[in-house]
Every structure is written in structure tokens, then in C-alpha cells.
């Protein structure tokens, strides 16, 4: 990043950052190396940066509000399969990524600046964590929101247990999380999973319109309101911690290997009917 106004974020390589008027910071999830049109997946670099950046946003005196979006074909892809394989094989990698996954959720919740997400196309994986935990979440009508954990053969950890039941209720949460069903942006708005849905052509403009209103409001009032409301999420911390531990326990089990193989072969998984619990 050559812009000296972005010196605060000099270490980030997998996230693109742009400053806009009125203290709006745009964070773009893109493929490492900037491969045009490629849906970004959470490899080890993007996963770490997406967990860390909210601490830097929190302490950035020039940022009032963040717009988070993806580029190319969608908002975010799922976890990088090479990283998932490393997690299955290596305790040290699994432990590191567990810590990053924990930090991603809590850092978004505790970031004092309001976050607006603009989701289009596929919204999966670590990007979806930030997308749904954002203070204002906006989805294109035909966006495809997918929590892919059970398809991979691990428990729905990450953000699911901490925010889905609060947003759309337990019945809908269990339906979509247990069955790994896709939620369209339009349906996500109907059930309360996202704040708003719009046509994709209007998505970015709407996100910046909302960000501008937040940037021009009372920063004290907005930040303190966010802090108070997010105590509902903090109260769900024990449920989140348990879900994340169970997810990462699953990365050491047999089902995740079948999940990885079936995704590589583009076929339905053939999981064992046996379960230890």
C-alpha cells in the first residue's frame, strides 16, 4: 500500500484497503496476489489478517466506520482446503487457527467502530463470520449465504452459535446449520439473518450510503450503542466457545477427511453413521 494514510495497515497483504471521505475505510477481501475474478478463500494469510485487522481498526484515529466487501464472483469462499488438511494433520496448525477463529469473532464484536458488510455471490467461511457479525449487514437478493461446517464434517463453530439464534431464532438456525442449506439474500432478510437486501447493482452504493450516515452521526452515541447491544453477543460467549472447541475437535476426527475428499471430487460425502457422542 503506497498511500501514507494507510500506514496503520502496512502489514496487511491479503486485504485491500481504501480510505474514503468522512472517515470511511473500505476493506476488500481479495485473492492473495490480487488474482482478478477469483473468489477469495480463507488461506492461512487471509484467515490471520481477517482476525487481526479489527484491533487495528479499533485504534485507527482516522476511521469512523468500515465497509467490508468481497470482489469478483462473491463476498467470500470457504476455508482453503490445503489449510483444512494441515489442520487435520497438525496439532500446532489446528491450535493456531483455533485461536485466530476465536479472535475473529471477539475482535469484530469488540471493535468500537461500526462495520457495514456488503455481501454478494457466495458468502461462506471466515468472511461470512465478519459479514454476519457486522453491525449493519447488507446482502444482494441473490447472494448465497452458506455455513458449510456440517458439509465438511465438523461442528458449526465460528460465528454460528453466537449469532444465528439471536438473529433468526433457533428453529431456522437449526434448519440451515444442521442441513447446510443455502440462504438467499432475500430469504436472509425475511428471517432476520441480515439487516437489508437489495439488488446486486445497488449493493455497494447502499453500503456506502449507510456508512456515510454512520460516519456523520454522533460517534460517541453510535459506538456506545454498539457496545451495549453487543453485550447480547458477549453473553453468548460460552456457547460460542463450546461450539468452536467442538468444531476443532472435529478437525482431528475421520469425518473431516471424507468431507475434504468429497469436496475435491465434487461428490456427496459418505460419512460414517457412527458418532462418539
Automatic annotation (TrEMBL):
- SUPFAM superfamilies xref list: ClpP/crotonase
- In Pfam terms, one family for this protein is ECH_1
* GO-annotated molecular function: catalytic activity
The UniProt family comment states: Belongs to the enoyl-CoA hydratase/isomerase family.
User: What is the protein's name according to its record?
Assistant: Enoyl-CoA hydratase
Give the species: Bordetella genomosp. 4
Amino acid at each position: 500500500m503506497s498511500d501514507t494514510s494507510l500506514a496503520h495497515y502496512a502489514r496487511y497483504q491479503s486485504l485491500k484497503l481504501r480510505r474514503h471521505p468522512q472517515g470511511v475505510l473500505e476493506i476488500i477481501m481479495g485473492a492473495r496476489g490480487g488474482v482478478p475474478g477469483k473468489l477469495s478463500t480463507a488461506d492461512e494469510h487471509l484467515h490471520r489478517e481477517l482476525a487481526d485487522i479489527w484491533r487495528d481498526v479499533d485504534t485507527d484515529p482516522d476511521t469512523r466506520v468500515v465497509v467490508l466487501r468481497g470482489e469478483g464472483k462473491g463476498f467470500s469462499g470457504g476455508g482453503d482446503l490445503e489449510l483444512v488438511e494441515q489442520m487435520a494433520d497438525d496439532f500446532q496448525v489446528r491450535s493456531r487457527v483455533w485461536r485466530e477463529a476465536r479472535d475473529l469473532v471477539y475482535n469484530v464484536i469488540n471493535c468500537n467502530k461500526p462495520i457495514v458488510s456488503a455481501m454478494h455471490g457466495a458468502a461462506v467461511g471466515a468472511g461470512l463470520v465478519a459479514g454476519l457479525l457486522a453491525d449493519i449487514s447488507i446482502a444482494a437478493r441473490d447472494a448465497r449465504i452458506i455455513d458449510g461446517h456440517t458439509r465438511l464434517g465438523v461442528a458449526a463453530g465460528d460465528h454460528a452459535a453466537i449469532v444465528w439464534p439471536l438473529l433468526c431464532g433457533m428453529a431456522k438456525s437449526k434448519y440451515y446449520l444442521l442441513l447446510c442449506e443455502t440462504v438467499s439474500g432475500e430469504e436472509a432478510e425475511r428471517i432476520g439473518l441480515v439487516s437489508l437486501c437489495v439488488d446486486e447493482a445497488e449493493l455497494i452504493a447502499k453500503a456506502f450510503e449507510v456508512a456515510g450516515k454512520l460516519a456523520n452521526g454522533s460517534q460517541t452515541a453510535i459506538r456506545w450503542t454498539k457496545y451495549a447491544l453487543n453485550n447480547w453477543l458477549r453473553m453468548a460467549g460460552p456457547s460460542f466457545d463450546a461450539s468452536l472447541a467442538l468444531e476443532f475437535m472435529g478437525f482431528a476426527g475421520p469425518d473431516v477427511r471424507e468431507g475434504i475428499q468429497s469436496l475435491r471430487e465434487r461428490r456427496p460425502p459418505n460419512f460414517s453413521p457412527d458418532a462418539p457422542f
